[in-house]
Amino acid sequence: MRILTPSTRVFLTLTTLTLAYNIHAQDQNLTLNQDPKFEQLLNDKRKINTSINTNDTYRIQIFSGKSDEAKKTLNDFKREFYAVDGTIIFNTPNYKVIVGNFKTRIEAERNLAEIKKKYKSVFLLKPGK
């Protein structure tokens, strides 16, 4: 390691302070011009989303864990059970793979028995859950 002379240290310190004095990060103001209809559309979308009832069918959860593993599990599931629909839902702190859209419990339990052969931590989700 090289030791600097006192005059070199003073010169480098003054140069650094001079350069740092002229730095201004995020110095500008941002003005956002938003169409007034946007807020109305957003409120209409919120009303529609609250009126949609997606929890009236039985579903099966086949995985809960990290994002990458959830994506891999869903892809593997879709390859083997191509007739059954599936999706990934984020529920803090885990990603859950939920499959099926079964109207009756009997139909859901039949599929549950088949899916249990391939996936170990599988359980049935009742409507409204």
Report on this structure:
The protein has 129 residues and is of the alpha+beta class. The protein has a domain at 53-125: Alpha-Beta Plaits (2-Layer Sandwich), CATH 3.30.70.1070. The chain has four helices and four strands. The protein has helices spanning 6-21, 36-51, 67-80, 105-116; strands at residues 58-65, 86-91, 94-102, 123-125. The longest helix is centred in the first third of the chain and has 16 residues, at 6-21.
Q: What secondary-structure arrangement, pairings included, does this model have?
A:
Layout: H1 6-21, H2 36-51, E1 58-65, H3 67-80, E2 86-91, E3 94-102, H4 105-116, E4 123-125
Antiparallel strand pairs: 1-3, 1-4, 2-3
Q: What CATH architecture of the domain at 53-125 would you give?
A: 2-Layer Sandwich
Q: What's the overall geometry?
A: elongated
Structural class, judged by helices and strands? alpha+beta
| Cross-sheet strand order for the largest sheet | 2-3-1-4
- How many helical stretches? 4
Main sheet makeup = 4 strands, antiparallel
Strand percentage:
15-25%
**What low-confidence regions span 5 or more consecutive residues with pLDDT below 50?**
none
CATH class group of the domain at 53-125: Alpha Beta
The CATH topology assignment of the domain at 53-125 is Alpha-Beta Plaits
Helix content: 40-55%
Order of helices and strands: HHEHEEHE
What's the β-strand tally? 4
> Any idea what the CATH superfamily of the domain at 53-125 is called?
Sporulation related repeat
Pfam families: SPOR
Protein name: SPOR domain-containing protein
GO molecular function, one term: peptidoglycan binding
Keywords: Signal
